[in-house]
Write a structure and sequence with these properties.
By secondary structure, this protein is of the alpha+beta class. It is built from six helices and ten strands. The chain has a single domain, classed as Beta Barrel (Cyclophilin).
Length: 220
């Protein structure tokens, strides 16, 4: 990502205090990638994540960014890597906060095409503000979802089961990560990205670069 660490400090610190939640409608953005374009609708039900993402886009953090961790039939992760974020926090523990409180909603789940916010293992399930992922997943059977229910100690609603059986996704992530949008156009492009050849640490051998454009009219 072409932005200095100092500018990132200033930007993130500022955004955490200035994010607004005044949008009356769902906002759409376009991921312009070197594999094709993907249009994503951001959820009004997760206003903090929606508005933080839009603020970051406006400030240029997703300009010439990369999908830098791609796991086939699981997710394609973009933005900053875990190590980059965690190492910066270790160097400046009191200077920078890089977590957004979780907005996990039972009706917003990890179906194929979902947009989620990455995080580390913090117990509050707070999201990184500079890392996202697109869900690919795979179709599951009822028996497979029964196993997930037993491991997670929760039920997968019947309507969501049907989606996971017919469309696919990653149900074992539900309840642990914030989902704040979904693909409305270009799902086939997301599949292409999720199928690229990767090397060590699931990094694509050929960079998958993207820029994010806000499509809806947004007033701050």
């Amino acid at each position: 990502m072409k932005i200095s660490e100092f500018k990132l400090f200033v930007l993130i610190s500022s955004l955490l205090f200035t994010v607004q939640t005044a949008f009356a409608q769902s906002v759409s953005v376009r991921f312009v990638t070197n594999k094709g374009d993907i249009t994503i609708m951001l959820y009004d039900e997760t206003p903090a994540h929606r508005d933080m993402f839009l603020s970051i886009v406006k400030q240029g953090l997703y300009k010439n960014a990369e999908f830098n961790r791609v796991i086939k039939d699981f997710v394609s992760q973009g933005g900053e890597l875990d190590d980059t974020i965690l190492n910066r926090e270790k160097r400046h523990p009191k200077r920078l906060v890089t977590r957004l409180p979780a907005e996990i909603k039972p009706n917003l789940f990890h179906k194929r095409g979902a947009l989620g916010a990455g995080r580390d293992g913090n117990p509050e399930k707070g999201s990184y503000i500079s890392q996202i992922y697109l869900v690919t997943g795979k179709k599951l059977t009822d028996a497979q979802m029964d196993v997930i229910e037993q491991k997670k100690g929760r039920k997968i609603p019947a309507a969501q089961r049907e989606v996971y059986k017919t469309i696919g996704g990653v149900p074992h992530l539900d309840g642990d990560y914030t989902v704040f949008g979904e693909i409305t156009e270009g799902l086939e492009i997301a599949d292409v990205i999720n199928s690229v050849i990767t090397g060590k640490n699931d990094v694509p051998l050929s960079p998958v670069v993207f820029n994010v454009i806000i499509l809806s009219k947004v007033d701050y």
